[in-house]
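Recap from last week: sequence in, structure out.
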Amino acid sequence: MPELKIVGRDHASPMTLLRGVRDVMTGAGSVQERLDALVAFIAKQFNSQVCSIYLLQPGQMLELFATTGLKASAAHVTRLAVGQGLVGHIAADGVVLNLAQAREHPHFVYRPETGEENYHSFVGVPILSGLQAVGVLVVQSTAARSYSTEQVEVLETVAMVVAELAIGQKLVDNYALARDRRHSSHAHAISGLKICPGLAKAPAVLHRPRIEITELVSDDPGQEEKRLAEALVAMRSGVEELIRATDGSASREQVEILEAYRMFTYDRGWEENIRQAIRTGLTAEAAAKKVFDDLHLKLEKIGSPYIRQRIEDMEDITMRLLYHLMGESHTAAHTALPREFILVARSMGPAELLEYGTERLRGLVLERASAASHIAIIARMLDIPVVSGIAGLGELIQPRDEVIVDGDRGEIYIRPGDDISEEINRHLAQRQKQNEAYAAQRDLPAVTRDGVRILLNLNIGLHLDARNVAAADVDGIGLFRTELPYLTSATFPDVEQQRKLYREVFDKARGKPVIFRSFDVGGDKTVPYIHMPDEENPAMGWRATRIGLDRPLILRQQFRALLEAAEAEPFKLMFPMIATVEEFDAARAILVKEVEELMQSGIAPPSELQIGVMLEVPALLLALPALLPRLDFVSIGSNDLLQFLFAADRGNELVAARFDPLRPSVLKLLRQVIAQCTAAGVEVGFCGDLANRPLDLIALLACGVRSISVPPPSIGPIKAVIRTLNLKEAAQYVEVLCEQEERSIRPYLRAFARDHQVDAGYGG
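Predicted structure tokens:
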């Protein structure tokens, strides 16, 4: 290799060092020779005796690929498992270690073949590819010292260069590593997180294939800042155009989400951080990538759903910026798409998903997304199955690979074998046939075989399609979740914003009854303008009405907006997360006060006002005798009620499956609640996941439930159960089962449905 002039001082500028790294990496010689030259160069630049590069190999082993200062014989011999030693700890957690005394760190492991016993200080940074550690870059010294923040940042930038070389030269096989991480073969399901239910099979389309940034170092920071400014203008213009294009066709919820998304494209702090990275010697593309990688590593361990959503939005915006900088299309939606497809993405923003349209999209697989994320909200609007939480998707799945998305189970299959593919085809054909049968019965009433009328209502809160509400077999909206304006806004939504949304609901309901659930933010639904404390158990913490009572202005403004939106029509409102009679009285008093002020301002109040409660806190079960005289209706919210009864977090797969709600104790409790409400003349309804499942529904109806609320896609399957069920026979059967041993009655109900020809559909 040609001789390279070394500038060996701690205070060498980042730009000088990066230019030297570029010259080494683009010089002559084999890949190994360039890596050897690179570690020698970095060691001298850092005035240190050791520099080493470890790269990840199949089996989750970090192999020493190049070193100066350690024994040369250790190269390609020393291997550390991910999580083992300081190097393994960096790779496992994506952390940076800067230690004056490495041996004192609890993760230190001595490897005698390296000859590192004379070195004290240690600084190591992860080598990242797609936010996954594929190696570690290490500098060591005999002196016991900590390296400066500037040196660590420069080392992180150098690691970006090493990552590009390692991937480009196949030193790291991302496909093999991803497959190794998943411990998966083509014939088995890969488990993830259930985000949206449903089943789909189609060829894969990769959203945002991996971007190859070939130029990382620049000699002209001024020109790079100019390129950045031009790309920002183009990116922001594209987002503005997308929002304009949705006017009139998108729902209010979609527009609000896009508006919140647009705000992030104008984040001044983000833009300035990129400019500062450019001034260190990076190209605009490398600077944008580095700023996002730094942000992701700092924030990814924070458990807040709001923080996770911000990371997802910022990644989406960063990727859009990169595509504009590189002059490429920012989404595969601009290329020829298959007749139907499964969209595969590490993450994506709501704007990008909408650009694909809905006619051909059959399912979505994501590496990262929570059920409360903007992308999940949009996907539920589109009624497509979504599975998330699967690492290494870009390496596991190739374009046009056949993929199966099972949103009901939270699983995907990649390149399934003939046996699995045929089985899924049978399931899809069965679903299609059943959906056609449901559609044919749309105008028929929800009446059991022995003539009992069941009220079918909708759970709504993401997107209200007037066609769903207008259907002949839909009696109304049993649960309208009012929290969406709060979740999709960067600032507190004012009365007028809320009033317009609620009025739209009344208009689309066309006179059918609507039950609005008041403010229900907190727990796993956080917003930026309400400071949420760190809580060990947020599901049972400061949330919903508890926040509203502590911050009464929130409830006052929402109640005012709802009352104005009603415009002298009947109005039904229920309070969530009520644990005591006093809490209900306090919330009701705020509502009554707003009614009085509304009348004083000359605005007509609702023609009829009914106030209810969502029964989801077990303590309220014992307070029913005192509460019922104050109520017009009760809605049993099974999701929270059951997780509190069984002390099992429904979002925790380790414990959520440990109990089955179809137990005598639960059903007896349900019968008692219904009997108490009926005796008091209080309407009682049921909403929650139990009502969506055929066997669970049979038990609910047998216990006396006569009004249920379910998502729009569930109406057909649920009505099929009702119309094929003899309720008297089912009630007698369940009553006998409830007097038996305390265990799940699900197997017996399955046999009952089979023996009595109850249409349990594909959910039974």
